[in-house]
Amino acid sequence: MPRFFRDAAPQLSYLNPEPDRWQDRVERQLEPALEGGTSPDHYIDMDLVSPLQLTEALAARDRWAFADSVRAGGVAPQSMGLLPFTILELTAKLRGDFRLWRIAPDSTVRAWIEQRIVDDAGILGHYVADGSNPHHTTKHHNGWVGDNPKGYPTDSRFHGRFESPFVQAHIKTANVREAMIHVPQAFPNVRSAVVAYLMTTSAEVETLYAIDKATPFIAEARTPAQHAFAVARLGAGAEMLRDLWYTAWVTSAR
């Protein structure tokens, strides 16, 4: 990939949490439309509909057709979430950015486009990372809801304490690098890759809850099972983001 992009690692890291910054509490109070309009971009509650309904909905042309599809099945789109379409949209924008960079008429315009590329790639990173956490793929996103025969945690703080304090206290960059075991790839079909990625994450929901039931994810302590699970999920997210960036770059040459 271009050197300017590889050199932008610190800026890409800074931009990763940007979509959460948009939902700052003060701004939400000043303008609630900001939260209501962007919150569904962060998740896809796959278990709100049947597997067949989910397959049909994810084949929709765009987020609006997806919303119509799930609404027809009796589920509110804002409850279901729009994460896969957010990832698809940003990946397409990034590919377009790279295409413009390749044909930029001069160095000044190319530099402007580089800023756009880094911004879009960094924002994409946030949503891909969201997709690595099983909480972002289920109605059980903040503690188990409804029937609970296995006695899974119902703690409404579960999502936050797993995703933030535990990871910050116990996971290092080197751990994530070691978990990235697959070689980079350019996806032949981005949508199929995104759906498969989120399906894989969704399949880990009960594992996450079972681990937390045995020992809660907290900053003060960790078990081997907790550490291995968090590292594996972060590694999957890092690989997916790398490959989406690489796919956007490679396919922009066509």
Question: In brief, what are we looking at here?
Answer:
With 254 residues, this protein is mainly alpha-helical.
Distinctive features:
254 residues, 15 helices
What this model shows, in words?
- The chain has 254 residues and is mainly alpha-helical.
- It contains 15 helices and no strands.
- The relative contact order is 0.14.
Low-confidence stretches: none
What is the SS-derived class? mainly alpha
What overall form do the CA principal axes indicate?
globular
Mean pLDDT: 96
Layout of secondary structure:
Elements: H1 3-6, H2 9-15, H3 18-21, H4 25-30, H5 32-38, H6 51-58, H7 63-72, H8 77-80, H9 83-102, H10 107-130, H11 158-170, H12 173-179, H13 190-202, H14 205-214, H15 224-251
